[in-house]
Specification:
CATH superfamily: Electron Transport, Fmn-binding Protein, Chain A
Number of helices: 3
Number of strands: 11
Oligomer: single chain
Radius of gyration: 15 Å
Mean pLDDT: 94
Helix content: 10-25%
Low-confidence stretches: none
CATH class: Mainly Beta
Shape: globular
Distance between the termini: 24 Å
Structural class: alpha+beta
Order of helices and strands: HEEEEEHEHEEEEE
CATH architecture: Roll
Largest sheet: 7 strands, antiparallel
Number of domains: 1
Length: 158
Amino acid sequence: MDTANETIGAAIGMIPSGCSILTVADGGRRTGMLASWVQQASFEPLAVSVCVKRGRPAQELIDEAGQFVLNILGENPTAMFKQFGKGFSLDEDAFDGLDVASSEHGPVLSACVGQLGCRVANKVEAGDHDLYVAVVEAAAVTPNTKPYVHLRKSGLSY
């Protein structure tokens, strides 16, 4: 088996994932970010895992609030990629021009096909990212929709 970085990256890039917009609010502050490393983590309790690059502004709010919403992108994610792909400071309005509702766990984006309200159960350092394991406490699904499925050309970068 070839262990060259390019081959490893190509193989890791073949692991399918979805893309979600992770939204979080704490006090009067709120933000959102594109999250591409999201997976179910357990059945009992129902939990998901989410990786966040260390130092992202959203991480501060996740750590303070202890909860977030995963807004699951539909088959045509272009508008959400444009909105959230650039990233936001905590002083910027990440939701400008979007239809956003509030929930117990954070902002909910109506343009997404599903939402998971999550409470952080654990945080683990994982290289240059932090891995959050969160129990799913609430959910919504838009009927007759399909999620976006993401494959990367290489596991060495986004």
